[in-house]
Amino acid sequence: MWTKQDLQQLVQRQIGEYRLIIVSNRQPYIYNLVEGTLRYVLPAGGLTSALDPLMQACGGTWIAYGGGQGDRYVVDQDNRVMVPPDDPAYALRLVWLTEQEEKGYYYGFSNEALWPLCHNAYTEPVFDLRDWETYQAVNQKFADLVLDEVGDQPALVLTQDYHLALLPQYIRNAAPDIVTGQFWHIPWPHPEIFRICPWQAELLEGLLGNNLLGFHIGDHCNNFMDTAARTLPVQVNAEYNRIEYRGDTTLVRPFPISIDFDDICQFSESAEVEQEMERLQEEWGLDGKLIGLGIDRVDYTKGIPHRFRAIGRFLEKYPEYQGKLVFVQAGVLSRSDIDAYQQLSEQIDQLLEEINGRFARNGWQPIVYMPDNLPAVTLMALRRLSRFCIVSSLHDGMNLVAKEFVASRFDNDGVLILSPFTGAALELTQSLIVNPYATEDMAEAIRDAVTMPEHERRNRMLHMRATVRENNIYKWAARLLVDLIQCARGSASGRSRYAATPTR
Question: I want to staple 436 with a disulfide (CB 3.0 to 4.6 A). Which of 121, 392, 482, 487 is the partner?
Fold first, then answer.
C-alpha cells in the first residue's frame, strides 16, 4: 500500500531538477475574517481532499484563485503564502479575479456551459460569447502567473479540471519546454454531445497542449480521443492512447482518483467522533433508528431528488419501516446564482414537503435535510451511524463520497448503494449498484440494505475497504507523477514503455 512517505521517496528519486506546480481554480486553504480574526478552512470536495496530501508530500507551488475574505491579509508581495498553516510544506500563490471575471469565467462558461455539457443530467448548457471571452482571459491570467512562477527553471505543471482547459496551450505557446499535464475531474461526454459547443475546437486545442491528459476511467479517455478525431486534423493511436497534433504528442490515460484511506479511517475511530455520534443520536432523535445517509454538494448531477423519491416509495411499499427509518441528507449549497441550481432547490423543497408531509407522525419525519456546511466531525459521525449510504449520481467522474464512506467504516459494517454512472462503480463492485432513474429498483435496494444479514454486510464492506485501501490517493499521485516525469524525460526508455503498454 502506498503511503505519504513512499510518495516522498518517489519524488526525491524521480523528480530531479523539476519544480512541481499545481494549478486549479479552487484553493486548498481559504482564509476568512471572523470577527476580525483570520481563520482558515479547507473547502469541501474531492479536488482538495485528493491533492493536498500530494502537495504536502511533494512540495512545490499551488496556484489558485484567491476567493477568501482574508486571503489578501496573509499573502506576501508576490501573493504567496506557505501552507498548511499549522505545518507549512508548500507555497500557495493566489490569482485575483474581479467580480465580472468570476461571473463570466466561473459561474458562466465553466458552470453554465462546460459542467452541464460534460454531465448527462439533462440540463441544457448555456453558451454565451461574453462568458467565453472572459474564460479565455482568465485562463491567460493563470498562464501568466504560472510562467512568472516557473521563470527559467525546468518545471512540471499539473493543471486541474475543466476551469482551465485553455491553460496548457497558452503555456506551450510561451514556453514549449515546460512539461504540462492535466487531470479532468469530471466526465468527458460522447462526441455527439460535445459537438454542440460552439468553441469545441479551441477547447480541444487547449487540452492537447498537454503532454499528459488524465481522466478517471477508460471510457472518458475513449470519448475524448473520439471527439478529437472528429473535430481536429489529429492522428489518434487508439491502441496506445496517443494523439499527435501539430508535431506534438498528448498521452491520454485513465487515473482513477482516490482518498487518503488511513487518515479517514483514523479520524473515524477518534473519541471526538464517538462523542459526536452520541450528541447526534440525542439531539437529532436518531437513537434506535435505522439511518440512511446522503452527503453531496447540492447539484443537479447528484440525483438528490431521485433518492428522495426512492425513500418515499420504500416507505409506501414497506410501511413497517415508517417511524423507524430516518434518511439524513447532508451537503452544502453552491452556485445558487445559476438558474438550474435555483430550480433544483425548489424541486428538493417540494419533495421534502410532499414526502415528510405524507409520512411524518409523532415527531418523526423520514427525511432530515441539512444543506449546510456541516463540520467534518459531524459528517464522520453520520457515516458511522448509518446503516446505508446512497450515492445516486446521474453522471460522475469518480465520486469520492462513496470511497469516504467505505474508508470510515472500520467496523466493517454498513451498505453502499451506488449509481452505475460513477467511476467508483467500477471499483466498488460489492456495493448495491442501482440505476437512480429506476425508482422501484432504488426502493428495493434500500430494503436490501436494511434487511441484509450482518455477515453479508461485513463481507461486502471488507472487500470494498481492501480495494480503497490499496488504491489510495498516494498510489493515484504516484502513477500520475511517474507518467508525467517520463514525459519530461522524453527518453527512449520512456517512449518504449508507452509503446509496450496498450491501454485500450
Answer: 392
Q: For cell 454512472, what's the residue?
A: 421
User: Which residue has 499551488 as its cell numbers?
Assistant: 62
Please count the CA atoms within 13 angstroms of the CA of 199 that sit on its side-chain side.
Answer: 21
Partnered with residue 296 across adjacent β-strands are: 331
d(CA 469, CA 457): 18
Q: Which residue from 136, 57, 56, 69 is spatially nearest to 96, judged by alpha carbons? A: 69
| Dist. CA 261–CA 475, nearest whole Å | 11
Phi/psi of residue 419, nearest 5 degrees: -70, 140
User: Which superfamily does 261-471 belong to?
Assistant: Glycogen Phosphorylase B; (3.40.50.2000)
Burial profile 97-113: b = 16 or more Cβ within 10 angstroms, e = fewer: beeebbebbbbbbbbbb
Provide the pLDDT for residue 140: 98
CB 330 within 8 A of CB 302: no
The confidence score (pLDDT) of residue 334 equals 82
Indicate the pTM of the whole model. Answer: 0.93
In this prediction, residue 48 carries a pLDDT of 73
Q: Would you state the pLDDT for residue 371?
A: 87
Q: Which residues, in sequence order, are CB contacts of 470 under 8 Å at separation 6+?
A: 1
Ranges for all domains in the chain classified under CATH 3.40.50.2000? 4-97+146-257+474-499, 261-471
Helices (H) and strands (E) in the chain, counts: 20, 18
Under DSSP, is residue 368 helix (H, G, I), strand (E, B) or coil? strand
Give the pLDDT of residue 497.
Answer: 37
- 4-97+146-257+474-499 maps to which CATH number? 3.40.50.2000
In angstroms, the CA 100 to CA 98 distance is 5
In one letter, which amino acid is 24?
A: S
- pLDDT confidence of residue 501: 40
